[in-house]
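Database export, one record per block. Field names are fixed; values are copied verbatim from the stored entry.
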Amino acid sequence: MKIAVIGSTGLVGNKMLQVLDEQHVSFEELILAATERSVGKQQTIGNTSYPVVSMQEALDLKPNIALFSAGAAASLEWAPKFAAAGTRVIDNSSAWRKDTKVPLVVPEVNATAITGQNHIIANPNCSTIQLVAAINPLHKAFKIKRLVISTYQSVSGSGVKGIDQLNLEQNGILVEKPAYPHPIHRNIIPHGGDFDETGYTSEEQKLLFETRKIMSAPEIAITSTVVRVPVTGGHSESVNIEFENNFTIEAVYEILRNTPGLVVVDDPSENLYPMPVIAEDRDEVFVGRIRRDFSITNGLNMWIVADNLRKGAATNAVQIAQYLIERNFI
């Protein structure tokens, strides 16, 4: 078993190495690759140090699985080359998510979308992953009609540049090349991605498209607002759901508590609810503030939090790799 991590020196790439080690994923050879400026560096997983090689060197080594986190441009160029060489590519960028021939996968929701013919598999956007993990079991039970989503996304979703901007601003240092068009320290920015002609952003459109694709539910009406907040790790989401069918709050709790990968944290009397500080460096998706929306028929409010670098990216990709291995797709 040869596993490659493409873009290993980035935030998500580093987290992939950490998760591979923690999950004890078995491999005979680990190949770390990145852009030319990182070639020759050393990275450590467990107690072993590995050299960072070029994309071409990684390709020549013919890995069985390649976890890509090098950005959309690199994925568009290199993923087809790895796939043509027989590698199963799990891509964390936006490059392949809209491709109808490429499955977009959250293993707890739609792992069966993967077949032996898929040599490129897309990892969804971080906000989408935690959303569908929490709402899909409810959709199966009560059928979702409409979703209204507001996200509160950490600066780590913008990579090192976002974290650096927050840290520098907190220390009163002027940022020469900021990640955001406004200060993020002591501020909230209702802007994620690029605006389109409709007034929505690319991050908001991802939530719409990806949720429908992953859940095979093109009929769900979805609207969203993406907000960047001065938090270093963990995305939060306020989700309002309108179901087709009636439900009880007791049934909602039972379903969520019995869904693998979810943790219900919901005791207002003790001030218990999901927060980024609880989710940080955890693989679970945390759900709380569960309550009926009395303004509509069959309405429900939820608050969903997860570590965007782990379940929102690295862990989900590693789970896909484990699925491929367990089902002998390699």
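Remark 1: The domain at 2-125+313-326 is CATH 3.40.50.720 (Rossmann fold).
Remark 2: DSSP finds ten helices and 13 strands in the chain.
End of record.
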